[in-house]
Amino acid sequence: ESLVSKITGLFGELLADLVEAELGFGRTPEFRISHNRRIALRDGRTITHGAGFSDPLSLHYEGPIDPEVGVLAARDSAGRVLGVVVNFTCHPTHLGGTNAITAGYPGALGRALAADGIPSVFLNGACGNIASGVPAFGLSPSLDEMGETLAADVRQVLAGMEYGGEWPLAAASATLSLPYRRPSDEEVAGTLRGAQRFVDPTIYDRGMPALLERIRTRRLQPAEIQGVRIGSVAYVGVPAEYFVQLGLRIKEETHPLNTQIVGHANGMVGYVPTKEAFARGGYETTFAGSSRMAPECGDLMADAAIELLQPWANELAE
Fold first, then answer.
1. Helices 297-317 & 244-253 angle (0-180, nearest 10)
2. What's the gap between Cα 248 and its chain centre?
């Protein structure tokens, strides 16, 4: 309640400080700071955080990354950048499972841009299976280095940014009722082939009774998919640690919109992998409070997002 009060109170301040501005959008690819953290093995399984290929059965990265650094910017009549919205796809988990509080690489990005006098908002993408660094090439940037790299990308985009034109606004949302998984005894026990429990397996066991009761009594999980259009740019909010393949599908199927995926938005239903990932296992598909949705949920959410954005895409294509 206090957060809502503070946010609504800020609207008055913002309305009193409005200035005329032009908008622009640009992007650049960034391949040096993220990787798909799921490694496919020769025996048909997948392991998470095996990117060092230390397991002798390691075969290949299971999937792609999303290298897009998307930048929406506003500038005033004097050409001064008033602020930017930056979208990039990667877990901000440099500190691992420690009980430390940090803004991570998004915070480092914000500090670097603030030093240039540019306010910024960071929106993470479909980062459910994406981690920092590129182990295959020995690249392991710190959170500060990663933030500086992204800040340099943003500066590059701003240097070539074209502003102006029409920027129609629109918004839409749909609330889905998503099915929970119906776990087998092996899934509940964490003994299913491909299961990967991290840190302490007893943590999973302690949470099982409450999780199973939740599934039994609720049966369905509400999940809001939200779309916001700003000109040729569309932000689509997904309340999940969404797999990158699903985010890329939404981007491709809503062309010519410049679609930006916003993960962890308007709630959190946990990890939502691709349907195919469940057959291989790995941390993100291992049944737990953080991974409880049915395998088809990823496509259901993508279908809903595409349906929301399609009218805007069609309008741009005309």
1. 30
2. 11
| Cis preceding linkage at 256, omega within 30 | yes
- 67-108 pLDDT, tens per residue? 999 999 999 999 999 999 999 999 999 988 777 889 999 999
Residues 245 and 239: their CA atoms lie apart, in Å, by 16
Write the pLDDT tens digit of every residue in 189-214: 999 999 999 988 999 999 999 999 99
**Pairing of β 258-262 and β 233-237:** parallel
- Taking a C-beta distance cutoff of 8 angstroms, is the pair 260, 69 a contact? no
Paired with 223 in beta bridges are 176
Cα four-point dihedral sign 108, 109, 110, 113: positive
